[in-house]
Structure formats: structure tokens, C-alpha cells
Amino acid sequence: MSADTETGTASAAETIVRDILRGLYEGRYVSGQRLVEPDLIARYGVSRSTVREAIKRLAAQGVVETRHHHGARILTVTKEEGLNILSIAELLVGLAARQAAEHIDRGTARANLREALEAVTTASASGDRFDFILARNRFHRTLAQIAGSRVLEQTLANLHVHLVRNRLVMDPEARAASYRRIADAILAGDPDRAEGAARSHVRVTIEYLRDN
């Protein structure tokens, strides 16, 4: 296989991964659903190797599980597992916000944070929930980048593929205001307030899931 072909396969596989993640949120894909190779080949107009690469990536991210002779299936996340994921997210997003506040005067950190805040608040108001998820991921990634922690950035990225399953429980205005509180505390260089605002933001979803 040539380098160009390998690149094309990787790009097509990533397109499939992105669409399945979006489909999880939109309900086109659901927990427990089998991912049948011939169906995916027909749906996306790609080769078997491309589909297998996409499934491999999804499995590595913990989105699907694969079994010998049984193919791939969207992993079912229980309520308890969902609460655990969100509890971890609360700690990590809080840590990212704290460390971002501590390093906010480095380089272009302030401009980067304002751009990420603008993106997440605009996406929140747009009504496109998947676009919002991408903007939310960018906001978290920006916090980790300002903090200067590649480990934190990668760990948050691994959580994002699970957070796509969670419902958005705040209305758009409240959600945008919550992100502004996080950003304002970071821009003020206040680590305690930044961490508190970030953790409170995630805790809203935890409390909703716990009560429903």
C-alpha cells in the first residue's frame, strides 16, 4: 500500500469515526448496536480495510467492543459507569481550569481562551448539539494547553468520546453563562474560583444523571 493510499484510508476512517460519534448523540447509533462491516461499507462507500480501521479506532477510544466471530458493537455504558466518567471529568476539568488560571499570562493564552469561549458560546446558541460538543472539547483542550500539560490534554481527549453520550441538561443561556464564569475566573488569574466554576459546571450533569 502506498503512502498516499494509507493517508486516504486513515482520512476516510476518521470520517467514519466522526460520523459514528455524531450518530451516537443524534440517535442514529445506540448503545448495544452491532456495527456490521458490509453495512458500513455500503453506507460510507469505502473498502473493508477502511471500515476495519475505523472500528479499530473506535475500540481504542472505548466506544465499541469487538469479539472474535461476533464483530463490533457499540459499548453500553451503565448509569454507574456514566457517573464515574463524569466524576473523573469534574476533577480533570477543574484541574485544567486551575492550572490555566495559574499560567494565563503566558504567550497567547488570553487570546486563545477568548477564542475558545467565543466558539463554545456561539455553538451553544446555534442549536447544533454536535457542533457544541466539538466546541466544548476545544474549550477543554485549550485549558489543558494553557496549563502546559500534554498528559492532561490527552486524558481529557480520551474522556470526550464518552461525554458525547451525555445529555445537555442546561439551557443554552445557562450553559454559555457557565462557560463565561470559568473563563472570567481564569482570565482574572484566580485558580480557586476557576476550579470551582469548572467543577460546578460538570456537577450539574452529575446531579441530573444521579436523579434520573
Would you give an account of this structure?
The chain has 212 residues and is mainly alpha-helical. It has two domains: 3-74, Arc Repressor Mutant, subunit A, CATH 1.10.10; 79-211, Four Helix Bundle (Hemerythrin (Met), subunit A) (Up-down Bundle). The chain is 74% helix and 5% strand. It contains nine helices and three strands. It has helices at residues 3-26, 37-44, 48-60, 79-102, 109-126, 129-147, 150-163, 172-187, 191-211, and strands spanning 34-35, 64-67, 71-74. The protein has a three-stranded antiparallel β-sheet. Strand 2 and strand 3 (71-74) form a beta hairpin. Helix 4 (79-102) packs across helix 6, helix 4 packs antiparallel against helix 7 (150-163) and helix 4 (79-102) packs parallel to helix 8. Residues 1-6 have low confidence and may be disordered.
Percent range of helical residues: over 70%
Query: Any guess at the CATH architecture of the largest domain?
Result: Up-down Bundle
Taken in chain order, the helices and strands follow as HEHHEEHHHHHH
| Poorly predicted regions | 1-6
Number of helices: 9
Biggest sheet character: 3 strands, antiparallel
User: Distance N terminus to C terminus?
Assistant: 50 Å
Number of domains: 2
* Structural class by sheet pairing and helices: mainly alpha
Shape: globular
Number of strands: 3
CATH superfamily of the largest domain: GntR ligand-binding domain-like
- Average pLDDT value? 88
CATH topology description of the largest domain? Four Helix Bundle (Hemerythrin (Met), subunit A)
Q: Beta fraction of the residues?
A: under 5%
Global Rg: 19 Å
Largest sheet: spatial strand order: 1-3-2
CATH class of the largest domain: Mainly Alpha
